[in-house]
């Protein structure tokens, strides 16, 4: 059974190798992370995708172990809600190689357990293929391809971006960072088109200088476009700044800054060829190894801005936390002026509703140093009036440190065992990400050793 699975993996790998000869670019989803519940949540894959250029004909490789995970192509709605009821397609053999044969947005999720809602989801935008420009590159391939395979690097076709997507070009009541966030994961190139949608007579689009943009002093402009939809073709590389000349629009957040690159850039070749998996070797029966452990990190919440209500944004702490990995043993430092703030750890519901009538703990003397003692979600705000609703709130997810790799018998890598492990961990830690069963290696968090020995299963 296990031997059969290994053969299957090998066959899939060989298939991938054959396919990659004709493919344009092979994107290994998440790079070395693979297709897992990412430690920091879904941002891992959106950050990864933001850095890649997907063109029709490219292939995605979702690296997971057959039976332990899967990948499903779904609609945007299913992606947003993590609804795996009726996927468009589903791949159950890992690593799954998927050829992108259509332009536009593509959405992928894992249908296993709560993996999607824990961040195992990927959204990409695929542009239409254009004339391939030959360039040598190294394709990551398993040992079947012993020599680097020359392949073609696609140039990128112009992309039409609808600014703000569905919300259009407007002042948004709930945020001043809508356009900053919208632009954050996009690549703009000369030849691309920006489309600004708005109701005729209620807005305009003004291209302005950086200083006008920064100060929101819009007395002079580079160009103003008044008739919607405004279509601006990006003709020059460098920074471009857009806002509206209507009163207060700029300071209310109706402003977009983008950086346009000179020309379609070839997808960078991987600097190193990933070590091919030893797919044909049987998994070790019993073994134990430790991963390099990570030293505790001290994080200064908000860095230089400290712990405060920030006039210009309600998302400062969400953005601050977004690209960080918190682990048990790490320290959070909250800096503020004595007597002007406090730090309250609260429940998720108190955090979500900004009802701070009851708290888990309150720390009043700055600098507040909190050592993350337990894995899972932690929520912090201030009990001072209105601070929470003005954005002085921080949610983090801390993971158990001191990972141990335990290689078990093939029997223990059976999907049903993995599901038991997943449920166990969900129940105890709410962190499915602490358990990753790959190639018959179960990665467990150290504290799991408190649980009954696995031979019980
Ligand atoms: C870009 O970010 C937005 C929201 O932050 C998200 O909805 C979208 O899927 C992201 N796109 C890509 C390609 O990651
Ligand atoms: C994006 O890619 C560049 C070049 O390949 C790399 O230096 C950079 O670290 C990447 N950024 C992220 C966020 O992965
Ligand atoms: C999930 O999607 C299916 C079909 O697409 C739909 O019938 C079902 O109501 C959805 N479930 C939820 C919870 O939205
Ligand atoms: C596009 O890819 C999907 C999934 O990879 C496949 O089901 C479909 O048949 C392909 N379409 C074409 C036209 O090749
Ligand atoms: C802000 O409101 C718009 C609709 O006006 C909505 O699409 C968007 O998700 C909201 N953003 C946040 C951060 O709540
Ligand atoms: C748009 O509004 C302007 C006045 O603000 C008006 O002159 C123009 O005719 C309108 N155009 C359209 C297409 O409605
Ligand atoms: C706005 O900028 C103009 C020049 O572009 C300058 O003359 C004016 O003083 C500035 N106004 C303010 C309030 O800074
Ligand atoms: C897939 O993951 C395994 C380890 O989990 C690794 O050895 C292998 O190189 C990865 N494959 C790719 C294509 O990244
Ligand atoms: C908000 O203001 C702080 C200083 O109070 C500054 O450091 C930060 O860059 C500003 N953020 C934005 C998005 O303007
Ligand atoms: C996290 O984001 C900040 C600003 O957005 C950036 O300065 C920092 O380098 C990022 N850190 C990592 C680890 O990507
Ligand atoms: C901090 O402020 C409190 C009152 O808000 C005061 O009792 C305490 O002495 C102050 N501590 C320091 C170190 O200034
Ligand atoms: C706030 O939470 C407390 C319990 O923690 C509850 O008694 C109170 O009704 C809540 N207030 C509001 C406005 O929901």
UniProtKB/TrEMBL annotation:
Residue spans of biased composition, Low complexity class: 146-156, 280-293
InterPro entries in the record: Cupredoxin (IPR008972), Phytocyanin-like (IPR039391), Phytocyanin_dom (IPR003245)
GO molecular function, one term: electron transfer activity
Signal peptide: 1-23
Region (Disordered): 129-156, 263-295
Domain Phytocyanin: 25-128, 159-262, 297-400
Pfam families with a match to the protein in the record: Cu_bind_like
Keywords per UniProt: Disulfide bond, Glycoprotein, Signal
UniProt GO cellular component terms: plasma membrane
The keyword Thylakoid is annotated on this UniProt entry: no
Composition bias type Pro residues, residue spans: 133-145, 265-279
Name by which UniProt lists this protein: Phytocyanin domain-containing protein
